[in-house]
């Protein structure tokens, strides 16, 4: 009877992920169907109940994402992000190489504190107008910005969805993420920049033809209301400060996100109804359905069994096993979205904790590294990439799938190698 | 009185005053109250953060609402509600009071088998569209629907969440409800009709004058099916809807809870129709869901500090020993309580008290359970936050330029609660006092 539960739950799980992979049907509908199917099967076979299904949803993750969405949604209206992108572009005085580095650094830092998608939604159009003015090809800029936004997101708890979920599941704090993943993200960022230089050297001219055009760009034009602008800056500073101190003052990350949302709403005072309807509920719905689906799998006891078998092997290779996880997650997250991947792997790693001699934290870091960095390899690996590609379709030279892969795949291999080396030596030295 | 009891009561009352006075956005008031309650509870130790998710919030209600809102969101595009509106207008022959009755009875009958909120989510859009077409005031029609659906839900085991709770606590079957509750519900419905006939007499005349003769003639000539905007969508939607309704009717047999039913049905419809999910989810009333979640969290606070239990024990302490007085006390207390608090947490607080009393008292003490069922059900009409159906109706009425206000609700809702509860009280008293069993009401 137990095997019956396993088989049925597994079929539903595989079917859902397979359909998710084909992208034929809206992902929210697919995961909802998977979640409801596993729940109905669970009710009939007695391994899952409605109450358990609701409790399987990681509300910390949902609350954190919701809080961030509201805060970022309010802050982005003030024009702050565009202002800074244009400001940085002007400072480079049209030196192309500096422009690429400057915008790349800005995207990475911005997406460390916002989600990649919002960062790209704001930075990419601004980039397009800058490259347009300078008469440059936008492709190197769009590709490098997406990839660096992913790298930047790796460095913090709130920067990427896998990190948010791992932080909540493993109870790892904001500073732990910065301390463990920050150095890796920084290294990967530098290596990526050097890589881009070699890759795009031929595509970009030494000097832009219309350098003086940049003089006419005025960052202040993006700002409608200066007092709101200043308040947005204040909110961001307070929230980042709270994140850095949250362990000390005993606030959970979702609470900080909510404080940020409430601060943004009360200080900047947008229309509450409008702000709430701008929240991407389908994303939250997608996450919740995945949690319910994987929760059902967990209730059958299958995940624990898989983890147990895996753990028996992993026990003998305490350093190699987490490194292998980086590559597994890295390859998979180039193929499917990294959120379903992370949600499916979290309970497996959790169950590993019951096996003696396994150092759980290194597995959590490995999952984060693989799931986040793997998203660089293909245009569908991350939503940030999708935005760049679809924006480039509006220009004369759209980014093709193979063009992306040619840049992304080698870089991903390099990045995963760097991550593996860090994890390997970090574990040897007892740091990870 | 302990400090935690005082604090939780103050936050509870403060939240309710904020909601009832309509000064602040409802959801904002509920969420703020919830945050305050949890923070205070953490300090005094009567609330834990995990409890918010695991116990306080009734996920069944949230899931049910979410599922049904998605279903209605998809069906809206098919023209179903407009079609039914034309059909209903023709049936009522353009008479305002007949329309009130038509929708009221429809809501009452549907509520006996389907959840009240679901009923409202399906019926209210029809009446909104009918009043838009005829240019009449939808308020009385909407109000009647909510009031009647609350009354109708009392009649059966599955009609109302308190009835389901009472059935598992008292060990009653479906037929017990039909015997003991349905006849009284019928009487109450008929009396309410008379009541509304008088209360809305002037209004009906006024609105009838407003109805444009030409527009009406146009409607009478129009075929209802002309309104269908998308037949395939309509067929798929109705298929999913009938799946939901069948499961609702069977849900005590197949043991699938309402939220699962609604979400499964919604998934079925989504898979068949494949709407744009971002657009569809924008149609979900997230603020209403947040309002419910916040309210549940606030109420759980006073449940934890024992406020509800203390009040009910206090009242019943006075009447204990006498079946008649106890039954009437339970009836009026639960009517009052579920008018203020959502009837689910209130019934939950009353169950153990009624259970103790019914073992202590001699005679046909089953009647105490029925008193609770009547009170919890009828009481929901007293204020617009007394039941989820009311909240939904008020939310829907806000699409009209003149939404239902708290004052408007109190005027008719409280009256309905009063009359129906008194009728129930009379029936209960008759059953206890008269040695001869009424033929209608075998216990």
Secondary structure: elements and pairs:
The complex is a heterodimer of chains A (432) and B (443).
Chain A: H1 2-22, H2 27-45, H3 50-56, H4 59-76, H5 80-91, H6 96-113, H7 116-134, H8 139-154, H9 161-170, H10 174-200, H11 226-249, H12 253-268, H13 272-278, H14 281-299, H15 302-314, H16 320-335, H17 338-352, H18 360-373, H19 383-392, H20 401-428
Helix pairs in contact in A: 1-2, 1-14, 2-14, 3-14, 4-9, 4-12, 5-6, 5-7, 6-7, 6-8, 7-8, 7-19, 8-10, 8-18, 8-19, 9-17, 9-18, 10-20, 11-12, 14-17, 15-17, 16-18, 16-20, 17-18, 18-20
Chain B: H1 3-20, H2 26-44, H3 49-56, H4 59-76, H5 80-91, H6 96-113, H7 116-134, H8 139-153, H9 161-170, H10 174-180, H11 182-199, H12 201-210, H13 213-221, H14 231-254, H15 258-273, H16 277-283, H17 286-305, H18 307-319, H19 323-340, H20 343-360, H21 367-379, H22 388-397, H23 406-433
Spans of chain A of at least 5 consecutive residues whose pLDDT stays below 50 are: none
How would you classify the helix and strand content of chain A by structural class? mainly alpha
- What does the main sheet of chain A amount to? none
Find the count of extended strands of chain B (DSSP E, 2+ residues). Answer: 0
- Proportion of residues in helical segments of chain B: over 70%
The count of helical stretches of chain B stands at 23
Strand content of chain B: under 5%
Question: Mean pLDDT across all residues of chain A, rounded?
Answer: 89
Give the class of chain B from helix and strand content and strand pairing. Answer: mainly alpha
Order of helices and strands of chain A: HHHHHHHHHHHHHHHHHHHH
**Beta-strand residue percentage of chain A:** under 5%
Shape of chain B: globular
H-E string of chain B: HHHHHHHHHHHHHHHHHHHHHHH
